[in-house]
Each structure stands twice: as structure tokens, then as C-alpha cells.
Amino acid sequence: MTTLTNPRAETRKPATPEEVRELLDRSHRLGADPRNTNYAGGNTSVKGTAVDPATGEPVELMWVKGSGGDLGTLTESGLAVLRMDRLRALVGVYPGVEREDEMVAAFDYCLHGRGGAAPSIDTPTHALVDAPHVDHLHPDSGIAFATAADGEALTAACFGDRVAWVPWRRPGFQLGLDTAAIQRDRPGTIGVILGGHGITAWGDSSEACEANSLEIIATAQRYIDEHGRPEPFGPVVEGREPLPERERHERAAALFPVIRGLASTDRALVGHYTDSEVVLDFLSRGKAPQLAALGTSCPDHFLRTKVRPLFLDLPGDAPLDAVVARLKELHAAYREDYRAYYERHAQPDSPAMRGADPAIVLVPGVGMFSFGANKQTARVAGEFYVNAINVMRGAEALSTYAPIPESEKFRIEYWALEEAKLQRMPKPKPLATRVALVTGAGSGIGRAIAHRLAAEGACVVVADIDGGRASAVAGELGGTDTAIAVTVDVTDEAQVTEAFRCAVLAFGGVDLVVNNAGISLSRSLLDTTLADWDRQHDVMARGSFLVAREAARVMTEQHLGGDIIYIVSKNALVAGPNNVAYGAAKADQAHQVRLLAAELGAHGIRVNGVNPDGVVRGSGIFAGGWGAERAAVYGVPEEKLGEFYAQRTLLKREVLPEHVAAAVFALTGGDLALTTGLLVPVDAGVAAAFLR
């Protein structure tokens, strides 16, 4: 008998070529320093030779960072791998600048093998520049030259013949040809300043290429430092100075839900707050309003920040009511202006307008509020605007800030290739853009709820009286773009207010609140002390009230609706032995659900509850003594209590924290959008707890 083997099964992934390892190392070093390039901005490449598995012959390849990746975290799978013979051949079929977008589809015919990232629009520059190593970066100092009114003359004065100037051209095949011509025709040139855009450098080795990139960046910054005006943004304006830190943060927390609601008029967004010295100084200066109105220039900048921000024209300490009223007026005007911008430049084949709300809101004395589809996007948008401030400072120090024309910005923002990139993005998770605060989230049911909400796309505020446990759970969920921890005793009004303030400053507001914090004692009526009664009512009845009240304040300011979920208990309905304080407190919570559903519905806020029973495994309450007490009441070993509870149910199944978390998601994930005032049993079927 002949045994057939699968040759694919014996195939080993080829080792990473040395030049690719060097490329990744170079990319990581460059991407780690924001002075070199912004997040997900720029790209690097290397050309080398590998064996073609189809022919066994050597083939010249180019490895280049693909579309959408980040240099600082680039991996081999984030590289596009293309054949150089085919890339060079594209010059012969190039139809001209008016049709250069057609060349993007041709990159697919240049790919080598399967997998890897999609080639970016900057691929032609890397391919056509006749150097083994090429870097394209967006450093603040380089873009300052690129956006100066006399950038070409400044480039010559700063660099001489070592760096050339390329007038603004949208990234694409023609820009690659232009850059390649300079590298070919001007020996000794190490790179170029790309008007309105950034820099490109090259070298015969990875070390030389990196050194050339860093030389351009450092030389440009040194020239700005030595030749620039001392106050490029003008003098500080009275009334726009930074407020003291505590007052500044209090004002930010008061304004953020309002601003987030305005910025979410077209679609819900998450927020990020920045009050760095760079931002506060810019906002305090006399030239800030007119410079902000000019908008950003580098394509990577305004794709994240929109063409211009919304700038509040009131002093930092203006009355809060006046600030809110003015923000609403400016927001309405911003939307009209943005629509007019779209209509001025849109062509019949332009993508539909994506939304008219600002991505950046600047409040003198307070700071910057940035927005995005998730926390990372919102944070990065703010980082990009800090880059834009640095660019404006450099350009104004040497010359006059002169970004690319509005029409060119529109060609980038509504570029068909950018639209295609957006369409390739994965569908958002059900709770994307929603900010959730879960009390008692340091263990048990609360921890399971926090995990489920984060898995479904929410930003989560993990609130617990035990700060260490809250921090541990927040760490399990990921970094601060996903979750933060707050220490809060829900019986303390000031602590509850502070917890929501932290949530607002972290994410811009709160959309989903879960009242889960609880405590239990099993006592007969005669053995229940006043302290027992007060403690359980303070945590569950009073605590839920305080949390719900603060949640409603934030939600009504946002005008985005919201969800308040109470984790109640089947004991709110069932009269069990030795349980008077706990059962009464849970009954209070159950009726709060009905009362608040009736009151808050007009604001689009839904209030629902979950009635679990017998959640023993993983439960902080049961581990804290309640389990032993209830086991004694029912005459079973404590370790068998979960099984005991399961056997008295209709389904004969034990209820776990994850089952309660699933019910919370079911109520908030979108499919029950018209349900409010409901108590959902999660008890495996306890007939005595049926609602009737």
C-alpha cells in the first residue's frame, strides 16, 4: 500500500529574513517617539531578495508597513510583501495623475504570496525610490516646515542640498514618481520635505536610513529653536489663562457630558480629556482662535481631528450656564459650516457626508475634549491635535502657518480610497461607544458583568469599596482605554459623586449603570439588630438610590438616553426564613426599578432589574459568610449549597455569575430597546418568584 503524505502538512513557515527583522526594529524605535511620527502614521520599508517557492529562483521583494498599522507595534503580519519587478512595471501602465487612484487596485497584482497587510497609498514612494531602505514619517518639526508659508525657502536655508522640497501633492503614484526623481537626480540628498504633509528619507542600510530620518527631524527642530520667534502664538489673553487644577477638573467634569452629547448628535462617541501644558498654553494665547480656524494640514491629522475644531470664545471662569448655552450655539454653527464645506467641494461620486459634529472641542482655561468611536480613537485624536499645535507653533515661529487649501483637505477626507478603508473596518460590537459603571465589580456577579460588558465593546468603570480588587478587575479587562477602577462606598454621597466624576473625566460620560453592590446577613427577626437593618438598607436601598440619582444627572445632561440596571434578587418577591433585612432591602430595590422607569422614561433612560438566586460560586457575598449562614438555615454543608439551590429549581441547574451578566447584556445590548421597568429572573426557575 502506498502512503500519501500531504506536502502542506510538512511545510514550515520560513524564517523571518534578517532585513525584515532590521525593518521591524527600526520601525519600533521610530514609532516609540512621538517626536518622530504620530500613532499609526508613516511607514517604513526594505527591499531584499528571497526564494520564490513557485520557481525556486531568487526574487526581489519589498516589505512595507501596510495600511492602518502602527510603527511602534508593527509585526511581520502588518507588512505588505510585494514583487519589485511588478511594482517597477507599473510605471509603464500609469495613466497619469488624473487617474492615479486606479493604480491602487494594481498593487494586488504585485503581492508576493498570501497573507500580510493591504498595501497603503504610500507604497509607490517606497517602491520607486531607488534605495534599499525608505522611511516616511510625520514629525512635528518636519510638518512645521511643510506647512510654513515659505516652506521651500526655509528648507533650503535649513538643509542646503541635503534635503529637497516637494510641493504639496496628495499621496499616491505621482508623489512616488516625484520623490524618486529627486533621489535619482540629486546625489547626496538624504530625503525630502513633503509640502503640507511630512518627510521621506532613504538609505543604503537600515541604520543609515534611520539616521537620515532622525537627522532631518532633529535639524528641523534645532533650526526652529535657534531662529524662531519666542512667542509664536502671541501673548496670553486675560481670562483665557489655565484655571487652577482642581477648579479646572471640576469645570471639565461639569461640561464633558454636555459636550459629549453635542459631539454625538450624528452618532454616539466616546470622549477623552486633555489638559496638558501644551494645550492650555495654546488656548490662552491671542492667535489661538484664528490658527485653530485654519485647521490642521497633515492628512493623518485632520482625518482624525476633522478639518478644524470647535473653539469656545468665552473666558475659562465664565458662568457655567453661559458656557453651556454658548457651546450649544457654537455647535449649531459648526454643523452648518461643516455642511457648507461638504457642499462646496462634494462631487457627484463623493461619499456621503459622514457627520457634521466636531471631533475636537477647545475650552480656554479648561482644556481639550476629543472624541472617537472608542476610547483609543478619542485619545489618539487628542494626541494628533497636540501634534497639530506643535506644528502650528513651529510654522508660526519661523514664518506663517499655511495649511493645504480646504479643497485639498476635502479630497483627502472624502477620498474614495479612505472611504474604502472605512468600509473594511469590522462592524462595531453591540456596546461600542457606551460607558458602563458597575458597582460591587471587584468580585462575583459584578466582576462577571464588567467582563461581559467590556467584551461587548463598552468602556467600563469598575467600582468597588475595595480599591485593590477594583484595580485587579480593571487590569483583567485591559488598559485604561477599556477600563478604569474607582474606590467607592455607595452609602457615601460624596464618594458616589466622585466616582461619577472620575468616570466622566475618563470617558466623557456614563451610559449604562449597574447597581450591583450588596451585602447580606442571615438573621431571624429577633436576632436582627438595628445595625444589621441599617447596614443592608444603606448599601442596597440607599446606595442604589445615590448611584441611580448621580447616573440620571449625567445621562440627562448628555441627552443620549441610557440604561440603569439593578441586580435585585428573587428574595425581593419570595418570603424566606431568617432574611428580613436583606429581603426588605431587595424589595426596596425592586420598587426603585419601577419608580425610576416611570420617571426617567421621558429622558430615554430605561431602568430594568435582574433577579438572581443561588449564585454561590464566585460570589463575594456568599464567600463573606452569607453562604455558611444560609447553609445552616437549610441544613446542608456549605460546599453543597450551590447544588442544593439548583435542585430546588425547575431547571435543576446552578446559577453562575456569568448567567446574571448575560441577562444584563440582554437588557442593554439593543434588542430590548423598548423594554423598561422589567425584572428578569435568573434563578433556573423558582416558581415562588414568578411575577404575578
Secondary structure elements and pairings:
Blueprint: H1 18-31, E1 43-51, E2 58-65, E3 79-83, H2 84-89, H3 103-107, H4 123-128, E4 133-137, H5 140-146, H6 151-159, E5 163-166, H7 173-185, E6 191-194, E7 198-203, H8 206-227, H9 245-263, E8 270-274, H10 277-284, H11 288-294, H12 299-305, E9 310-311, H13 320-345, E10 360-363, E11 367-372, H14 375-398, H15 406-413, H16 416-424, E12 435-438, H17 444-455, E13 459-464, H18 467-477, E14 483-487, H19 493-507, E15 512-515, H20 530-558, E16 562-567, H21 580-600, E17 605-612, H22 620-634, H23 641-647, H24 657-668, E18 679-682
Helix pairs in contact: 5-8, 5-14, 9-13, 9-19, 9-20, 12-14, 17-18, 17-24, 19-20, 20-21
Total number of helices: 24
Helix content: 40-55%
**What global shape is seen?**
elongated
Termini separation comes to 72 Å
Task: Give a count of the beta strands, DSSP E runs of length 2 or more.
Answer: 18
In angstroms, what is the radius of gyration?
A: 30 Å
Give the strand line-up of the largest sheet.
Answer: 3-2-1-4-7-6-5
What's the story with the biggest beta sheet? 7 strands, mixed
